[in-house]
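REVIEWER CHECKLIST
Item 1: Sequence provided? yes
Item 2: Single chain? yes
Item 3: Sequence as submitted:
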Amino acid sequence: MKVAVFGAGTMGSGIAQVFAQAGNETYLYASSPASAQRHKDKLAAGLQKRVEKGKMTQEAVDAILNNIKIEEKAACADCDLILETVKEDMATKKVLLKELDEIVKPEAVFASNTSSLSITEIGFGLKHEMVGMHFFNPAPNMKLVEVIAGANTSAELVQKIKDLSVELGKTPVEVSEAPGFVVNRILIPMINEGVGLLEAGVASAADIDTAMKLGANHPMGPLELGDLIGLDVCLSIMDVLYDETHDSKYRAYGLLRKMVRSGKLGRKTKVGFYDYNK
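Item 4: Structure as written out by the authors:
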């Protein structure tokens, strides 16, 4: 199977690894081939550390990296699956997919890794059928894939993506289109409530997280998790939930918006609710 992953950031690189280690020829795309190569090199460095720790063999790493190709966009023309994981912005996704719609062979499947946006709207006007294939971070380790059907997604395509997810070693959950799907509809408002408690001075960030870890048996507290996901992503999802439902319970707290405006996005910027420079 030939797969093209558009968007080579943390999620895109991780998803490319998942497909590549399952033996698929995987094309990784970013804003340019040079940018994609930098992301591949970063992935390679991370995998090499796993070899040094005895968690992977060199042969397994070499096989993964050999399956990840860096090419010009035209090389995706004969790919069987196009998976976009670019910026969580409807216009950005639609512009990219409209361009690819004219390049890729007719029988190819288009999938989106969107964490909250409408699959129906993303795929509207495309000749290729669209489905949601939502991986979770870190993609190589997290078992879940949400398989989302838009209004124009056939039952046959949903089943095909569920079967593919199983082949990749994942557990698929079928979801009808709804803002935030399942996990983020529950998870992101929880993170937002953690932000609200901090904003109100109810408890410190560390104590909020400790309370949820010990009181609810969560492996990470809400603010730690927000930093891991990226506070910009959390805010984007909250805004989608609010815009789609107009329910005040999905209104993002001012502190979350302030953190994003100040560039304190969490682990990826080294500063969020915690300092990761230490």
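Item 5: Key structural point noted by reviewer: The first helix runs from residue 10 to 21.
Item 6: Recommendation: ____
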